[in-house]
Specification:
Elements: E1 2-6, H1 12-26, H2 33-43, H3 46-54, E2 58-65, E3 68-80, E4 83-91, H4 100-115, E5 119-125, H5 130-136, E6 140-150, E7 153-163
Parallel strand pairs: 4-5
Antiparallel strand pairs: 1-2, 2-3, 3-4, 5-7, 6-7
């Protein structure tokens, strides 16, 4: 059974560990090792996650399967007008295909509705097969873009949305 629990400061090391495990499998064939290492260092530093946890609109939840942390979701209400941004949702490899991601996305939809937002947006790498998973959950592409993330790296993404 899948459940979600609110992450707090003491969970930062676990979030970082789950990010590293999931990224190394999810992006190994899509991005260079150098880009993966750079993005993990930038996006998942203790300071970065800590700053997110201090933002009252930014929420992290651990995704548990059979009471074991198998991933996490990070989202920000009111990112844009009436819009919640799904910044991150990651599962370790052996948790995929068990409904954990679907449960987390349904949780996000409920949280978004309760926040007063009526739209969820996210970015997904154009080569990532997660795009089809998002589409199966009602998300659609509204734009494509390339983002310079520094250090000579870019993110070539689909921007997707779900309207509540």
């Amino acid at each position: 059974m899948t459940s979600l629990i609110k992450a707090i400061e003491k969970d930062i090391p676990l979030i970082r560990e789950l990010a590293e495990k999931s990224w190394k499998s999810a992006y190994a064939e899509l991005l260079s090792k150098e880009q993966i290492d750079y993005m993990l260092a930038e996006m998942y530093s203790v300071e970065e996650i800590s700053a997110h946890l201090q933002n009252r609109n930014y929420h992290y939840y651990l995704i548990l399967n059979e009471n074991i942390a198998v991933g996490f979701i990070g989202f920000e209400h009111h990112y844009e007008l009436q819009t919640t941004k799904l910044h991150r949702i990651y599962l370790v490899e052996n948790a995929k295909g068990k409904g954990c991601g679907k449960t987390a996305l349904n949780f996000l939809k409920k949280q978004t509705s309760e926040s007063g937002d009526s739209r969820i947006i996210l970015n997904v790498n154009k080569e990532n097969n997660a795009k089809s998973i998002y589409e199966s959950q009602g998300f659609s592409v509204y734009k494509e873009d390339v983002f310079d993330i520094g250090n000579g790296f870019v993110m070539d993404d689909y921007l997707m949305e779900f309207i509540l």
